[in-house]
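Entry 12.
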Amino acid sequence: MLFDESPVGLIRETTTQFKIHPDRESISRITQSLSSLHATRQSSLQTQQRSLKNLSRRLNALQTQREYEETHHNAGAHASSILALDGEKFRTAKSAYDTEIETERLQSELSSTNVQIEQLEREGPEGGVRRGEEAEDEVVLKLCVLRGLGVEVESMGETGGWGRVVVRDVERGDVRVLGSDGGRVAREDVWAAMG
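Predicted 3D structure (C-alpha cells):
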C-alpha cells in the first residue's frame, strides 16, 4: 500500500500537504530584520569609532601640551615671582594706608587754616574785630573827627597831604582858610588855627 504508490507522487503529495509558505515569509522577514539590525549596528559602530578617534586625538594633544608645560615649568621662578608680587602688594597697601593717613592730616590742617583765615578776615588788617560799617580805615576816621571839630579838609591829590583846610569856630563865628594858594598845609598850622 505504501509501496504501491510511486515515491515521486508520495513526496509531491507530502510537500503539498505541508504549508511552508508562511514559514518562508517569516524566514524572509527575520533575514530582513537581521540585515537591518546588522546595518544599524555597523553604523553605530562606525559613529563610535569616529568619536573614539576624535577623543584619542584630543587626548594626545592634551598630553603633549601637559608634557610641554611640565618641561618648561620652573617652580623656583614661579615661587620667586609670587613672592615678589606679594611684596609689591604689601608695599602698595602700606603706601595707600600712609597716603590715607597723610590725607586726613592735611585735611585737618586745611580746616584749621581755613578757620584761622576766617578769623583774620573778621579781624581785618588792623587786627581788631570788624563790625560792618564800623570798620572804617584810619584816614576816614580822622576826617570824621576833624569834621566834628569844625575842620574840613581837601587832599592835595597824588601827594596825599592836606591841601585846602577850612577851620570853623562856631562859638566865635570865625572861619579860617589855610592853604588856599595850593601849597601844603602842616598839621601844626591846623591845630594853631583851631586853638
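Annotation: The chain has five helices and three strands. The first strand starts at residue 151 and ends at 155.
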